[in-house]
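Field reference: sequence -> structure
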Amino acid sequence: MKKILSIIVAAAIAVIMPISSFAAENVEINQDSEQKSSSISVDYNMDLAYTVTIPASVTFTDTEKTVERTIQVSGVLISEGNSISVSISSLNDFEMKNGDGYIDYYIMVNYHALPENNCSILTVNADDGSGWAILSFVTDLEKSHALYSGKYTDTLTFTVSVI
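Structure field:
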C-alpha cells in the first residue's frame, strides 16, 4: 500500500511541477488585474544561407583558346539591404607560369574584360535570390614567352562576401 501511495504522490508532483513552471512564463489577467491586455512577441530566426557554384577548372588547348564557364549564386537568404559579392584574384596576375616562362590570359565577365586583378565579378542582392555570370577565359597562346615544355598554371581565388 505504501508503494502505491508513493507512486501516486510522485505522479501528482510530476503533473503539478510542469504546470507551475509553465504558469510562471505566462502573463495572467483576471478580474482584479489593473491592466486587461498584454502583448507578446512571436519570433523565428532565419539562418543565413546561400550557395556559390564556381568552375572546377579551366584548360586551354591549341584549338580551344576561349573557354566559357558559368558562376552561379543561388538560394540567397541574407539580411535585407545586403548582397552576396563574389570577387576573383589571380596569383600570377593572369599569367600561367612554368618556371620563368609564362602564357598570358584574361577573363571576361558577361563579355566585358575584368578591369583589374582582385575585383568583383558578381553581386546578388538579397531581393534577387539568385544570379549568374558567364566567365570567358581567353588566351592567344603566345608561345614565344613559353620557355619550357610542360604545364603552365595559375591559381584563381574566388572570395565570397556578404556586404
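Note: The domain at 49-162 is CATH 2.60.40.1090 (Immunoglobulin-like).
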